[in-house]
Structures are given as C-alpha cells and as structure tokens.
Amino acid sequence: MATPARRIAAEVLLRVEEDGAFANLALDAALRQAGVLEPREAALATELSYGTLRWQIELDRALVEHSDKAIDALDAPARVVLRLAAYELLHHSLVPERAAVNEAVELVKELKLSRAAGFVNAVLRRVAETRAAPEPPSRETDPVGNIAARFAHPRWMVERFIKWLGPDEAEKLCQANQQQAPATVRVRRGARERALQALAPYDPRPGRYSPDALVLSGAPPALDIEGHEEGLFQAQDEAAQLVSIYAAPSAGANVLDACAAPGGKACHLAEMSRSVLAVDRHARKTQQIAEAARRLGLSNVEARAADVALPLPGVEPHSFDLVLLDAPCSGLGTLRRHPEAKLRRTPAEVDELAQLQSRLLASVQRYVKRGGLLVYAVCTLTPEECDEQVDRFLKSFSHFQLEGPPPGWPHADCLDSRGRLRTLPHRTGTDGFYAARFRSGDSP
Asked: Which pairs with CB-CB distance under 8 Å and at least 24 residues apart come from 248-253?
C-alpha cells in the first residue's frame, strides 16, 4: 500500500483536479478523515499537496518529454499520480528513485486505475534518469518564458507582472509565490496572553505589521489547535488583517461588510466598532460568518444572506459610517496559500472580475453616510482590479474623494506613493493585498 501521506496528497489533488476544490479545504478535510496521523505524515501530506500544485506547470513540462501521450489526455488519477511522483523526483533529492516510482504504481492501483500502472511506471522511470526539469528558454531571447518556466507560472501572468513591475521585480514576485506561506492567526483583542499560552507549542512570534497577528511554526490547520474553539484566535494572514486596520472604524461606527465571507475582516472590524452587518450572497457562508462571530464572543455582528449588487432589503441609503467592499477577485496575491489559482485563472476572467467589481462598487457606495468612508479591497495584484478600478470609480462618483491612510499609520512599506494599501509577497512577506479609502462628500 502507498504511504498515508502520499495517499492523502493524491486524494487532495484529485479533488482539486476533478471537483475544483480549494486545496486548503480539501487538505483539511482529508487530514481530519484520516484520523490520528503521525505529525511527520501529516506534514508530508501537506508539503506534497501544495508542492505538486505549486510546481505543476514545471512537472507537466518534465512529464511530457517522457510520455507519448498528452498529459491532459490522461485519466485524472494517472495525471495526479504522475505529477505527485514527479514532484518528489524533481524536488526531493533524498527520496530514492525506486520508492517514488513504486509508490506511484501502488497509488494508481489504489485509485482503481490498474490498467495505467505500466504506463505510470515507464514514464516515471524515464523522469528518474535525469531528475531534472527541461531547461527554460533563454533569459536574453525570451525573458517572459524564462521566468514562467523557472517559477512554474502561466506565461500570461508573468507578462502582466512584468508590464506592471518590470522584469527584475516580477521575477522576485514569482519566486516568492513558490514559497510556503507561514501559518498566521489574528488574536482576539483582550485574549493575547491566553492565546500565547495555547499556542506555545508552535513557537508563536509577533507579526511584522499587525499588532493582532501571531506567526506560528509547524502548526496544523488552525481548527485543530487548542484555543480555536474557545475563540482565542482566528486564522488570517497579516495582509488581510491590515485591511481592517487600514479601514480604521471608530469605536462608535456602524459598519457594512458587503462581501463578508469567510468573516475574518467582519469579526476584526466588530472588535473595533459598534456594529457590523456582514453580507454574503450564500446562506451557507453567512452561517459560517455567524458561527465565527459566536466563537469569538462577538454579539455585534449580524450575518445576512443577500446580493449587494442589488438594493439590500431593509437597509436605507447613507446609513453606514464605514462600508468595506472586499470584492471577489482573481486572488493572485494569495498564490502562496492557493497555488491552484494560477492553474485556473485566465486573462478573460480577470477582465470579467474587474467588471463585477465595478458593479459592486457602484451598488454599495449608496450605503455610505455623507462624510463616511468606503474601503475597496482585493487580494490580488492586477492593475485592472486595483489602480484602474479606483480610477474608474472616482470618475463615475465624483462626490467621493480618495483619502490617504488613517492618522498614525506606521507602515510606509505597505503603502504606494498615493497612500493606498499595497502588500506584495516578495516585499512584505505577506499575501498580496490592495485597498483604497474613499471619503464621501455631498451626494451629486
């Protein structure tokens, strides 16, 4: 039988491949279903799952050189097993070739595809002869292709990064995207000492930017850590925490979080303000938001299922001091945590999402009080969804003025030249986030 770690990783990769699952959710579910595992096996399953997705573009290049069949033409279990074993062969030099190949053959049998065992064996033995990816294109003649091949990113994505950042910084960004993001939690305000005690086995250290952040070492999913159910903390990257801190509601503010799932920012804002109406289109997700608020002991969060692209039933215009639109986006700032995103996104989707964001901004701006604040945020890096989106909004709604960071903002390296929040993995070591603040004047 294949080892538990490899079997779990294959199950996760299949769910991502066939069902469009998010890797983190699929992995958490697979680990819980596996029951008691040695910590080493759980860590290896995690590393194999994320590593295979992170390097999938490179792995497919290596496999296609040794296969007489197109990778996309194979049955999904064969594809997944080939990539998993190729990842071990190319990125785990201490794994014996025989172990990687034999485990792959056993895995494909356990996945009820015995007829592919001979093919998998033959392809992987050829890969094992060199244990190296094909040479990338020349940096001089094809700089985009060179970066795309070396760091396993789609070519179109690298082209956009280069256009925005230039080749040197685009390369650093792609390299940073290939690193595992640290496990980070946001501690409930007033519970820091208790949280530090509960998290002591994971060597918690303060975050670099958020006063509420703790960065952990060797931690399992936050749901499985002592103190989570007691509401001492919530899993959340520092950049996501900075969005709420950048919004900076007053203690007496009424807040609308217009696209609130999974609820991290809604709960963070509730710790700073009088009340939060957390809205999401999906009833199941609003239940998750309500549960997170309950677990954290927050009685000032109302979770409601509604589509903010339409008028909200029972909500009057100009009724909130702060409106946060953490809009649906391409998610290209979170590739360290969600490597499957770079395998799924297309240029057309970026353009479609930018149009959706424009519609949502036009809809939610009506709920900002005169003199109130609208904050637009996305966990992506594309100009279409960031600066260009802000410019379009300001042209359409002239009674809003762009405003800089809140008074006393201490993190200049998290701002662009115009005072907009911008974090980049290779610069800040966090996820990539963007946010802008708009102050409402008189209605037109």
From this structure: 248/272, 248/406, 249/273, 249/321, 249/322, 249/373, 250/321, 252/321, 253/321, 253/322
Measured CA to CA, the distance from residue 325 to residue 260 in angstroms comes to 8
CA gap 403, 388 in Å, rounded: 16
pTM, full prediction? 0.94
Mean pLDDT, residues 198-219 taken together: 94
Give pLDDT tens digits for 103-125.
999 999 999 999 999 999 999 99
pLDDT digits 0-9 by tens, 278-312? 999 999 999 999 999 999 999 999 999 999 999 99
d(CA 436, CA 364): 15
| DSSP line for 199-230 | TGGG--EE-SS-TTEEEESS---GGGSTTTTT
228 and 242 housed in the same domain: no
CATH for 119:
1.10.940.10
Mean pLDDT along residues 133-137: 94
Q: Are residues 266 and 402 in the same domain?
A: yes
Q: Which ranges in 296-346 belong to alpha helices (H)?
A: 340-344
The number of distinct structural domains making up the chain is 4
Provide CB contacts within 8 A for 136, sequence distance 6+: 145, 146, 149, 150
Q: Report if residue 138 sits inside a domain.
A: no
Q: How far is CA 128 from the centre of its chain?
A: 33
User: Which residue intervals of 300-410 are DSSP H helices?
Assistant: 340-344, 347-364, 387-396
- Expressed as residue numbers, the domain containing 203 is 183-235
Mean of pLDDT values over 203-230 = 88
Which H/E stretch holds residue 372? strand 368-378
- Summarised one tens digit per residue, pLDDT across range 370-427 is 999 999 999 999 999 999 999 999 999 999 999 999 999 999 999 999 999 999 999 9
The reply to whether 136 falls in a domain is no
Domain-embedded: residue 160: yes
Sign of CA dihedral 417, 422, 424, 429: positive
Residues with active-site annotation: 379
The Cα–Cα gap between 263 and 266 comes to 5
